[in-house]
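Task: sequence design from structure.
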């Protein structure tokens, strides 16, 4: 049966999203979709990749220690990212829910999250986690990754082929020069895919097994993928 699309765009009061996981390989569009949902539902996107890159950009002890690993497509140790997520989800803007983007991506992180996930207070405190896995073919992922550019401060995601900024090379939000992530080369992408298959595919199986899990086709225009994700989340929340 066709879903009623008029029900899908609503204000923050209409739907309490609760905690949401966006899972999937590098480049499936986790960050892009999280940014749309964040605006639509007024809940934060928590991207462990962005948090780690901020540490690298600001040359914090964590940034200095892990830059080489991240640039090579290797994961940061579980305890470091778990602590980042614990700190961030304790902030008051997470009380109606949050979107975890790129976390968990090892079974160790998933087990930690299952034991520690708390929306501390507020309306979403009693809601269980919902997981959506986005899927895109390898060749399309490679095209997306090599075409990606990012606003280093705003975190806005662009693509030179499919979603360019209004002025070439400059972020629409704050005018900062766009950057290409050091891990967005073909060579590092293939290493990231290898690590994804080895360490993150089992995480997807883990959430599939727990229920409250849906797969969504990510090979469609951004707006269509958003609709598919929103429909999946609504189905799961209404169960
Ligand atoms: P992270 O930053 O999380 O990278 P990733 O998982 O590899 O995912 P990406 O950010 O590359 O892709 P995305 O799915 O967000 O796609 P996007 O929306 O940008 O992690 C980077 C590194 O940090 C890791 O390798 C690791 O070292 C470390 N790290 C992070 N989290 C960690 C953790 N939990 N544990 C340990 N280490 C961790 O889209 C990609 C491109 O496609 C963009 O150009 C976009 O415009 C375009 N696009 C998006 N949707 C569409 C569409 N529908 N059609 C056409 N183009 C589209
Ligand atoms: Mg991302």
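Answer:
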């Amino acid at each position: 049966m066709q879903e009623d699309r008029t029900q899908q765009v609503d204000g923050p009061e209409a739907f309490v999203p609760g905690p949401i996981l966006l899972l999937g390989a590098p480049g499936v569009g986790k960050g892009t979709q999280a940014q749309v949902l964040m605006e639509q539902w007024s809940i934060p996107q928590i991207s462990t990749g962005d948090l780690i890159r901020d540490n690298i950009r600001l040359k914090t002890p964590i940034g200095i220690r892990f830059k080489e690993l991240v640039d090579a497509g290797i994961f940061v140790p579980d305890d470091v990212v778990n602590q980042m997520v614990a700190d961030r989800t304790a902030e008051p803007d997470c009380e109606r829910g949050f979107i975890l983007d790129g976390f968990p991506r090892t079974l160790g992180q998933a087990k930690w999250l299952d034991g520690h996930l708390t929306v501390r207070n507020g309306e979403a405190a009693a809601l269980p986690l919902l997981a959506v896995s986005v899927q895109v073919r390898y060749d399309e992922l490679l095209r997306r990754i090599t075409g990606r550019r990012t606003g280093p401060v705003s975190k806005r995601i662009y693509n030179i082929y499919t979603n360019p900024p209004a002025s070439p090379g400059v972020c629409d939000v704050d005018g900062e020069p766009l950057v290409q992530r050091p891990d967005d080369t073909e060579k590092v992408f293939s290493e990231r895919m290898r690590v994804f298959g080895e360490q993150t595919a089992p995480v997807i199986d883990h959430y599939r097994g727990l229920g409250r899990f849906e797969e969504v086709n990510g090979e469609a225009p951004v707006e269509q993928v958003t609709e598919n994700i929103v429909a999946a989340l609504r189905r799961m929340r209404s169960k």
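The first strand starts at residue 18 and ends at 23.
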